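hey m, so remember when u said the tokens were messed up on ur end? i reran from scratch. heres the input so u can diff it against urs
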Amino acid sequence: MFGVPAPTEFDVRFRLLGIPVRINPFFWIIAAFLGKDTLTAGGTFFFIWIACIFLSLIFHEFGHALVARRFGASPDVLLYSMGGLCVYDNDRQSMRQRLLVLIMGPGAGFLLMGLTIALTCLFLRISPGNVWNYRLFRGQVLPTPHVVAAIIFLIEINLYWGLFNLLPIMPLDGGQITMILLSMHNRRQGQRRAYIISILTAGLLAIYFVKQESYYNALLVGLLALSSYQTLQAFHYQSKFGDSFEDETDWWKK
């Protein structure tokens, strides 16, 4: 359900730190949809939102990519409608190396949030507590509304996306981390248990978002729950005919 989108003639392509980057046009469409409320404050704030979400996802994916390259892989980064992907051949990775690659995606986002807070403290001459509570006009230097917007966007995108991405939901980083940790404990049952946890977590979260009338978020996590259910059913189907996924000791390399 959430495969890698095929290349299109409208893709933006470039290399950053020697790593190929491809941006699918649907990335811009979804980013614009998520930031549509900023248009009420003016077009400039809308483009600041787009720039901040682009920078945040690049940081996140390069957190994966740089660590993967350190372990000998040749990663590519893709930004698309569902966020971002770091794609590479990981057939030589150990389970612990794969775990570190996964952790460093959200880790890079939290690092960007920390850098944003630190630089804001430095240039506005205010305390971290004031930055955290968005009391940005208490310093010796008064920021412009556009600077305030950029600071708030960078903090909130990296905080909330990082926390959401660490939930034990497949194929988010948190879901894959959960699968590896469970497999370290029980190699035969780790995958199955991780998908069960993914279904339950995403399902409960979808119900919560519906109650909050946040229907886009409910649809998103509902699709993740459905994807996990379909994958679990496919695994059980394979097991029924003797091709048990529970016997794949190197599944994280696939």
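this time it looks ok to me. Strands lie at 12-16, 19-23, 76-80, 83-87. if urs says something different then somethings off w ur setup not the seq
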